[in-house]
Amino acid sequence: MAGIELKSVRKAFQSLEVIHGIDLAIADGSFTVFVGPSGCGKSTLLRMMAGLEEISSGEIRIDGARCDHLLPSARGMAMVFQSYALYPHMSVEQNLRFGLENQRLPKAEIGARVAKAAEILQIEHLLSRRPSQLSGGQSQRVAIGRAIVKEPKAFLFDEPLSNLDAELRVKMRGELTALHRRLGSTMIYVTHDQVEAMTMADQIVVLNEGRIEQVGPPMELYARPKNLFVARFLGAPP
Ligand code: ADP
Ligand code: MG
User: Fold this and answer.
1) How are beta strands 16-26 and 4-13 bridged, if at all?
2) CA-CA distance, 49 to 141, in Å (whole number)?
3) 25 within 8 A of 3, measured Cβ to Cβ
4) Own/partner pairs for 100-106, CB < 8 Å, 24+ apart?
5) Nearest to residue 159, comparing CAs of 143, 135, 148?
6) Helix or strand run (H / E) with residue 176
7) Is 15 in the pocket of ligand 1 (CB under 6 A)?
8) Which atom of ligand 1 is nearest to the CA of 13?
9) TM spans, by residue (predicted)?
10) Please, how many CA atoms are within 13 Å of residue 183, restricted to the half-sphere of its CB?
């Protein structure tokens, strides 16, 4: 299956090009990690896939079909942000229901999806709380829940754990890996953390200044880095 394909994708802000022609195939159901230093274009790439940012040229395909002209809601992708982006005036349950009510899904279907997501993430006891009454880890679970209820083809995570403390980050990594196994959906995960990349990925994409340095499974990149940048970044012997 095709999953997601990027062909010669470029992005310029005004006259400054920040993504310089990315070609990439992401297998259906895989866990792909984008890794690279701050400012290399990780978020911009994710936002272009989600449709939150237009591409300047190139193509993005899902399951073989062009999607780069589609509205975000029509792409079957759900994004999870570092900042959680929960609606502060709504309860957790309302936060989970909100996007589905806009899609005009039947009430019973909405209820079933919210219950399932709450069970998967073990947040059933938090459903009546407001976001201000949640810890960082609980907030991130709700943010992930809001993506799960959409039943997307692909999940796009933009540094979802970087606001959490070290111990919780390790726990949540394991939970996200388990979630991937349970749902079997394509997941694209952005981080600047080498350990996250090495432990979570089926495939790592190493980015530098808007270009791909190397793509491959973690151990291949570690054992056979193409250049010094990849070696240094993943902490491999040069
Ligand atoms: P990363 O997520 O890897 O830290 P970003 O994708 O946020 O990197 O940014 C890549 C480059 O694009 C940076 O040089 C950044 O300054 C620039 N950039 C991102 N968004 C905008 C924008 N809206 N306007 C102008 N430049 C931007
Ligand atoms: Mg970013």
Assistant:
1) antiparallel
2) 23
3) yes
4) 100/149, 100/150, 103/73
5) 143
6) helix 166-183
7) no
8) 25
9) none
10) 27
Cα 44 to ligand 1 centroid, rounded to whole Å: 6
Rounded to the nearest 10 degrees, the angle between the axes of helix 136-148 and helix 166-183 is 20
**By percentage, how much of the chain surpasses pLDDT 90?**
85
Q: What is the pLDDT of residues 92-147, one digit of tens each?
A: 999 999 988 888 889 999 999 999 999 999 999 999 999 999 999 999 999 999 99
- pTM of the full predicted structure? 0.94
Instruction: Pick the residue whose CA is nearest to atom 20 on ligand 1.
Output: 44
* Tokens describing residue 76: 């079957």
Pocket of ligand 1 contains residue 191 by CB under 6 Å: no
The DSSP annotation for 187-215 comes to: EEEEES-HHHHHHH-SEEEEEETTEEEEE
Task: Dump pLDDT digits (tens) for 61-79.
Answer: 999 999 999 999 899 999 9
Interhelix angle 107-121/136-148, rounded to 10 degrees, is 140
Contact residues for 75 (Cβ-Cβ < 8 A; gap 6+): 49, 50, 51, 62, 67
CA distances (Å), 35 to each of 145, 149, 207, in order? 24, 27, 6
pLDDT band at 85 (very low <50, low <70, confident <90, very high): confident
Q: What distance in Å separates the CA atoms of residue 224 and residue 238, rounded to the nearest whole number?
A: 9
